[in-house]
Amino acid sequence: MSSKASNQLWAASFPITQDQARPLLDQLEETLNPAPLSLSSYETETANCWMVEALFDELIEPEIFTPILTSDLLNGLTIKPLPQENWVEKSLENLKPIRVGQFYIYGHHNEPPPHSGTKAIRINAGQAFGTGHHATTIGCLHAIETILKNESPCNVLDLGCGTGILAFAVANLSSAHIVASDNDPIAIQVAQEVAKDNALAQRIEFVTAQGFRHRTIETRHPYDLILANILARPLVALAVNMKHQLAPGGTVVLSGLLATQEQLVLNAYLAQGFRLKFRVPLEEWMTLVLKR
Ligand SMILES: C[S@@+](CC[C@H](N)C(=O)[O-])C[C@H]1O[C@@H](n2cnc3c(N)ncnc32)[C@H](O)[C@@H]1O
Questions:
Q1: Lowest-confidence range among 51-55, 112-116, 288-292?
Q2: In this predicted structure, what is the pLDDT of residue 5?
Q3: Does pTM top 0.85 for this prediction?
Q4: How many other C-beta atoms lie within 10 A of the C-beta of residue 86?
Q5: Angle (CA) 239 245 249, round 5°
Q6: In the beta sheet, which residues pair with residue 282?
Q7: Where are the beta strands (DSSP E) in the chain?
């Protein structure tokens, strides 16, 4: 019965009132087996008539809904194949190229950079974080550009590299040796592919590591620039080690924290003797640049 091999998607849908929709969606999410790829509700053109839609990557039996739906709702249930589309391409269509300072970040589906003089980085949306669209990444790119106007780091660590976007930004603006690490092996695989695609593979050493725990990271330290766009609490946990890994006078870029978490993170680093150089607030996020 399964049609997974063909990449065919199936939509199960039924009409409902707006009030019924929300609690039912929660129940469907908890109960449906197999679990749908997505669950949504939307308003139709008929007054007070909404539709619930569950998407599956295989043809499912209507019986999976019987423990949850009343017989009235079951009567309205239809299960239909979705027209074949390239869903990856579809989602990429919405991902516009972005410019951050000199950096132009784009995907294969976009036009190549419009001007010479931009530092172009080609990254496709995929399985790793870091297409350049998130405020934390943008904050880091602004910070990198500002730092590299005044400093020429030789030894750089991008901790929590995702697609490797920050490492690529540094590689574009400096001749530094760069180590890029992530605790997610898939992110490292993606980053290595993106590095090759941007002809930067020779410039960057990629390692899968939790925090600083890797022989390459240890061997290469001390760094004169460390980029860490992770989350507030791991950043706090890394503060003591960050001091050990960074050369005296070195710079660290901390991101992934909400503006409301700034003081928490800052206190942990001030306690280690770091000084705040500048901040890049963006939406509800904060990027901090500190000196050891
Ligand atoms: C917010 S993403 C940032 C990706 C990219 N650097 C950017 O700026 O767009 C955070 C990345 O850090 C990784 N990560 C989170 N905690 C980590 C840790 N303790 N050690 C190594 N990597 C970590 C995650 O797997 C994820 O790929």
A1: 112-116
A2: 45
A3: no
A4: 10
A5: 90
A6: 285
A7: 10-16, 38-43, 50-56, 78-81, 98-100, 103-106, 119-122, 155-159, 177-182, 204-208, 223-229, 246-258, 275-282, 285-291
Among 156, 165, 183, 226, residue to substitute to test ligand 1 (most atoms within 8 Å of Cβ):
183
**Whose Cα sits closest to atom 6 in ligand 1?**
161
Residue matched to tokens 């091999």? 5
Query: Alpha carbon of 198 to those of 26, 30, 107, 148, 204: distances in Å?
Result: 43, 43, 11, 20, 12
Task: Summarize pLDDT for 168-192 with one digit per residue, the tens.
Answer: 999 999 999 999 999 999 999 999 9
Within 6 Å (CB) of ligand 1, which residues are found?
A: 128-130, 136-137, 140, 159-162, 165-166, 181-184, 187, 210-211, 229-230, 234, 256
> Domains (ranges, CATH) in the chain?
4-84 (3.30.70.120), 130-291 (3.40.50.150)
Nearest of 75, 51, 52 to residue 62 by alpha carbon: 75
Whole-angstrom CA distances from 80 to 38, 157, 199 are 15, 50, 45
Does the pLDDT value for residue 273 go beyond 50? Answer: yes
The DSSP 8-state label assigned to residue 11 in this structure reads E
